[in-house]
Amino acid sequence: MLIATILSGCKPLEKIFYPTKRSYNFNQVVDRIVDDLDNRNNRDLASYFTIKVRKQYGTKNIIQELQNAENGLGKIQKYHAEETGGSGHRGGLGETVRAWEIILDTNQGRYYVNINWCEGDNSEGNRLMRETEGIKNMKIYSEEYNNSEGLDQFINVDFPVLYPGIKR
User: Fold this and answer.
1) Per-residue pLDDT tens for 97-145?
2) I need a surface site. Which of 9, 122, 134, 143 has the fewest CB within 10 A?
């Protein structure tokens, strides 16, 4: 198996030595995120944030923000998720960010989760890739905030977990 891995390139070796959430596909990651939200498993949920974001803000602070954002969320009954766009570059170097929207139907009403998922920054080769792959930020808000006026408070806020009631 090792010989086959070596002959097929170093990408499989990288997944063995650096196993992270990024190696999963969109559906697997979203399933885990929703499951972690439903079970309030914030330690695992925080591990989906990029290493760079966790270093910058602190994993404990992200976990606390997730707990605050989940207030009133209720028990998830069903959900729908899709990739809604993104930003990036055309074959050049830099960061590619995908926007995901998850609609949660809970016993407390409908909630929206918007995630900016970074596929990594390759501007310095593979050095930054590992630190910049994962969730850059996440917004959790109820249906009552699903309009432009309700989300104005998120403008100019730079923090990985955003939700209504935030004061920064």
Assistant:
1) 888 999 999 998 898 998 989 887 777 766 677 788 889 888 888 887 7
2) 9
